[in-house]
Amino acid sequence: MAHKNGLSTGVVSNIVKDWKEEIGSLSADQLRESAVILQNVGISPLQCGQGSRILNILQNLGFSGDNIEMFAHDVCKMCKNIGLLPDKIALHIKELIDPTEKVPLDQLSDHIQRNKIMPESTSTSTSTSTTMVVSNQAKTALEQFQEQV
Fold first, then answer.
1. Distance of CA 45 to the CA centre of its chain
2. Distance separating alpha carbons of residues 85 and 97, to the nearest angstrom
3. What is the per-residue pLDDT across 28-76, written as a single tens digit (0 to 9) for each?
4. How many degrees, rounded to 5, is the angle at CA 109 between CA 108 and CA 111?
């Protein structure tokens, strides 16, 4: 650490000693140990904080510590299998969930079946056809997701 910052080891030792006296030896040792662990793992304190916040969010949603990693791995694996890029996952999940604002999720499959696209010759509205195509795409994505779960 001293060499990295262009200081002698004696200067660094004195800085650490003074700092320990100011805030308490135990806290300084704990902070140093945490910094060493983060460095060994290869993450920054910012990344550690972000990971902690994500962990708390998932735990508040009902995930246990044991299944969070498995959930993240499985979701990413399933998305990769269907060609869904990780940065688009949230967008597409939102697109899948939006129809549930009008139709409950457990009734969505039946709703889609009832509203399948008629042959183009009987279609009276382009917007209706577009809505049906989107519904069918959502159904297909939902079915693929359910098959992989």
1. 19
2. 18
3. 778 888 889 999 999 998 898 898 888 888 888 888 877 888 888 888 8
4. 60
Distance between CA atoms of residues 72 and 105, nearest Å: 22
Count of residues for the chain? 149
CA distances from 118 to 1, 10, 109, 125, 133 (A): 71, 82, 17, 11, 11
Tokens of 117: 């696209």
Closest CA to 139 of 128, 118, 147: 147
Give CA–CA dist 74/80, Å, rounded. 10
Which H or E run contains 34? helix 25-41
Structure tokens at 135: 């519904």
Please count the helices (runs of H) and the strands (runs of E) in the chain: 7, 0
Q: Given the structure tokens 């299944």, which residue do they identify?
A: 67
Cα 69 to Cα 51: distance, rounded to the nearest angstrom: 12
Q: What are phi and psi of 36, to 5 degrees?
A: -65, -45
Task: Name residue 33's amino acid.
Answer: E
pTM greater than 0.90: no
